[in-house]
Design brief:
Blueprint: H1 7-22, E1 25-29, H2 35-45, E2 49-53, H3 78-89, E3 94-98, H4 107-114, E4 118-121, H5 126-138, E5 142-146, E6 158-162, H6 170-181, E7 189-193, H7 223-241
Parallel strand pairs: 1-2, 1-4, 2-3, 4-5, 5-7
Antiparallel strand pairs: 6-7
Helix pairs in contact: 2-3, 2-7, 4-5, 5-6
């Protein structure tokens, strides 16, 4: 019996589409400004299973843009807050929430044991991002990756394209270099902005804990990470709905 909450979605997708999404499993790495919007939109669309991985807790500096960030959630693990939120939206969605610091030496095992067929990459650390994508490729997963939403203001410049077709995004350029060096494919979908980024703040001291590194603090605005997350979720849903299509519909790459 169709969940009453999905009646409007069923009108758009039909019974087959609802069933296909319900049978899908997405691994979502990172629940910050972009990732939490991906998670919520996939759950609201009817995706049946989500593996959520993030090591961080909600902080004051997250309040300007992150879906999980409220004064009532400060200090709590982001995966915990997101899992509770999804349970309140879509109780039938199966959530595997893991508060884990993603590193090059654990990404393959985490992906392999999850059983997910799609990776939503929403992390910032570039070396780990490359390792995550490479591991997903060895497992035959379809990959959808967020590039840099920070230091930008113009929503009209956001695009979805193959990684090797992005332009104007320094993070995408650096990621391409790392993947080429590792012998990995650039055949994955990326959400990026063509807007020239503004300068970040001066670098902070290294993070404490595993993988601590000098941290570049980017300027952010409320709507840009959300827009990236919504574009990423849309591309993933279109992929999950496709029976034999090898890429999202052409509308995903049409300029507004």
């Amino acid at each position: 019996m169709l969940d009453e909450a999905l009646i409007r979605t069923q009108i758009l997708l039909g019974d087959a589409g609802i069933s296909r999404l319900a049978a899908s499993h997405v691994f979502l790495a990172g629940l910050g400004g972009v990732g939490a919007y991906v998670a919520e939109n996939l759950a609201r669309a009817g995706v049946g299973r989500l593996t959520l991985v993030d090591h961080d807790c909600v902080g004051m500096s997250n309040l300007n843009r992150q879906l999980v960030a409220l004064h009532s959630t400060l200090g709590r693990p982001k995966v915990e807050v997101m899992a509770e939120r999804i349970a309140d939206i879509a109780p039938n969605c199966q959530i595997n929430a893991q508060q884990v610091f993603l590193q090059a030496d654990n990404v393959h095992a985490l992906l392999a044991t999850s059983g997910a067929t799609v990776l939503a990459d929403c992390i910032d650390a570039i070396a780990c991002k490359a390792a995550l994508i490479r591991a997903a490729q060895t497992l035959g997963m379809r990959i959808f990756s967020s590039m840099g939403a920070g230091n930008r203001l113009d929503p009209s410049q956001v695009r979805v394209a193959r990684l090797n077709q992005t332009e104007g995004c320094p993070l995408a350029r650096e990621l391409r270099g790392l993947l080429r060096h590792a012998g990995a494919s650039l055949d994955l979908w990326a959400v990026y902005s063509r807007e020239r980024p503004r300068p970040p703040a001066p670098r902070e001291a290294p993070d404490q804990g595993p993988g601590g590194r000098p941290k570049t603090v980017n300027g952010t605005i409320s709507y840009m990470p959300a827009l990236f997350g919504i574009h990423l979720a849309g591309a993933i849903v279109q992929h999950l709905l496709a029976e034999e299509r090898q890429e999202p519909p052409s509308s995903a790459t049409i300029e507004p």
